[in-house]
Amino acid sequence: MKIYTKTGDKGQTSLIGGRVDKDSLRVEAYGTIDELNSFIGKAMAELDLETCRDIFDDLEAVQNELFDGGGDLANVMKERHYKLSDEPIEVLEQRIDELMEEAPPLEKFILPGGSHAAASLHICRTVTRRAERITVTLMKNEEDVPGTVQRYLNRLSDYLFVAARIVNKRATVSDNEYVRSAKVFRTGAKDKKDNASE
């Protein structure tokens, strides 16, 4: 089987149920999710499995869910069956709550960094935010874009923020606080989650 098809040599690509220009907003959205999935794989390769096996397992599920979400955005058939459901969003929320119980108190803004794996997770978080922004723009411009994908990306960015902090904690690496930050976060157990992101 040849990996190249030459069908995209004129600047178009295939969707599920149609073809579009490669620079279309829909392709940009699911292409950014594909980029995110690659960065997730990099972060997984950098995790210490002795201390972070649970996070590795979370991310393994996330990779499959991102593939589902990207496929849903690429689906333009008249009768569509979307793969990404609300259940993975609920799982992410549960994991965020569990990890927040372990996380150090958060009072100030923190800068991406620390261990290699945590720094990679922060990159994943920012790419997730970009994927979400593009998906929101796509939702404004086209009908029948599954909102589940946007909600999943929103929750995933929260998870990645918390996961990066936990990876640093388990590696005994302190968060890199923004030096000019005031104490902007409340430190109650409930408030820690509420203030992590939106």
From TrEMBL:
Gene3D superfamilies, A to Z: Cobalamin adenosyltransferase-like (1.20.1200.10)
Enzyme Commission numbers on file: 2.5.1.17
Domain Cobalamin adenosyltransferase-like: 3-166
Pathway per the UniProt entry: Cofactor biosynthesis; adenosylcobalamin biosynthesis; adenosylcobalamin from cob(II)yrinate a,c-diamide: step 2/7
Sorted UniProt keywords: ATP-binding, Cobalamin biosynthesis, Nucleotide-binding, Transferase
MF term (GO), any: corrinoid adenosyltransferase activity
Pfam families documented for this protein: Cob_adeno_trans
Catalytic reactions on record: 2 cob(II)alamin + reduced [electron-transfer flavoprotein] + 2 ATP = 2 adenosylcob(III)alamin + 2 triphosphate + oxidized [electron-transfer flavoprotein] + 3 H(+); 2 cob(II)yrinate a,c diamide + reduced [electron-transfer flavoprotein] + 2 ATP = 2 adenosylcob(III)yrinate a,c-diamide + 2 triphosphate + oxidized [electron-transfer flavoprotein] + 3 H(+)
Signal peptide, first to last residue: none
Enzymatic class: transferase
InterPro entries the record matches: CblAdoTrfase-like, CblAdoTrfase-like_sf, PduO-typ
Protein family (similarity comment): Belongs to the Cob(I)alamin adenosyltransferase family.
Record NCBIfam families: PduO_Nterm (TIGR00636)
Protein name: Corrinoid adenosyltransferase
Protein's organism: Sporosarcina jeotgali
Source lineage: Bacteria, Bacillati, Bacillota, Bacilli, Bacillales
